Records
---
Amino acid sequence: MTTTDLDGLKALVTGGASGIGLATAQLLSDRGADVAVLDLDPGKLSLPLLGFTADLRDDVSVRDAVAAAGEALGGLDILVNNAGIGAAGTVEDNPDEQWHLVFDVNVLGLVRTTRAALPYLRRSAHAAIVNTCSIAATAGLPQRALYSASKGAVLSLTLAMAADHVREGIRVNCVNPGTVDTPWIGRLLDAADDPAAERAALNARQPTGRLVSAPEVAAAIAYLASPAAGSTTGTALAVDGGMAGLRLRPV
Ligand code: NAD
């Protein structure tokens, strides 16, 4: 069923050229929004959407791209801070440079994009920011110290930003995906000795028996971004197949 609940709204999705961001850009567009994508290489976009090149590590390129998107769309109502990178290992495994890199993209990148988008969002009657966080923010996952810390910061920022901007009519929420079947996971599986066996093991570790799909995360983002969620701000919506909330007995 097609809905048009986002008709007339203007949305910017970071990391929108791949995975969760691409599925989100597609869904927001299907539901009536005018959508622009900010990414390192939006030229590879397979959708007929506006693409803007920026590196979240570079404040000038982010400001330029957000302004160009805002001008091209004629405003901004929805910002989806989705782009992010991963890192494996314990606190002993990553040098300082890697910590700076992941925080630069996952945390400061979100701050830079939000800063650039706020002047546009303040002019919207339905302003919403949705951040792509992760169950890693709260779940205590092994071998993910750096990534978890960066997503913990995204969760805290979601709450702080929601408080700071609620009186301006800007809602801020996040989604906490579990393990999502995107090119990101594809790259991890490809690096395994036996990708098919690794995929089967990954599926078996999910309470639902399968990975989360990118469109399922996109649906949660689209809901939080929509006027239907007008009284929802400062929340984290899990889209994780039950990973964080369920206490299942080992089978
Ligand atoms: P993906 O690798 O398929 O897509 C990420 C996109 O972000 C890419 O298009 C990439 O070019 C862009 N990007 C990366 N660094 C950038 C930078 N410096 N500037 C601009 N764009 C940049 O990954 P995905 O799985 O779709 O992940 C999207 C988000 O979802 C990330 O924030 C990730 O942490 C989060 N997440 C993913 C999973 C998962 O299992 N896939 C689970 C939880 C959370």
---
Amino acid sequence: MRGKLIVFEGLDRAGKSTQCNRLVESLQQDGQKVRHIKFPDRNTPSGQMINSYLKGESQQNDHVIHLLFSMNRWEAAPSILKDIEEGTTIIIDRYYYSGCVYSAAKNNPTLNLKWAHGPEEGLPRPDICIFLDISAEDAAKRGGFGSEKYENLQMQARVRELFGYLMQSSPEKDDFVRIDAAGSLNHVQQRVKEVVVKAMGRVDAEHLPLR
Ligand code: T5A
Ligand code: NA
């Protein structure tokens, strides 16, 4: 049986990494084969350029950085597909939803959601995208907020608005399940597990690439 592709999304500091780690551990305890990946993968050449940009050590044109984030995903796509086919479930911390939303949130007149979507088309489509929902204000209260490029209230509020649009009105809206991420770590973890167990039990959706 093929593995599932489970994505976590949310604002900066929503708790994605923490919840991904907990889910991976819990699925492994259930005896499943699981791999955890995170985008951007800062280790590849494209990821190193992204890392330097996010840390404010280099500048990039808005379109160029968008394409670098996309390239960073395409580099990983063959191994994602291979693992899924071989029965490994993949848990991804941020994916092309972030890719589209963060770029469009800059309000660059030549970089809207539609433009941003283009380079992502054809990437493996998730079985489910869990949106860990927190307000920009609550996220900003969490440890470490403010150290990277997009970690400011105005940007995060716009990002949340655009995620809201994706969840309500976009062709990908059915990919999403929203979970309130402002509760305790254990409470969020429990909700995540419920949602994932339900998704795992579903008849295998056709594994279509992003339209
Ligand atoms: N980006 C990314 C793009 O612009 N385009 C793209 O294509 C992609 C993929 C880096 C930036 O790049 C942008 C988006 C980002 O701005 P990143 O490396 O994933 O992306 O950076 P962050 O999302 O900022 O990663 P963080 O590690 O900061 O956030 P997480 O993973 O959401 O949060 P986590 O789990 O590390 O938790 C943060 C803190 O909050 C606490 C944790 O203990 C930790 O201290 N916490 C809670 N506290 C109380 N209650 C809870 N329920 C909590 N959950 C977590
Ligand atoms: Na993270």
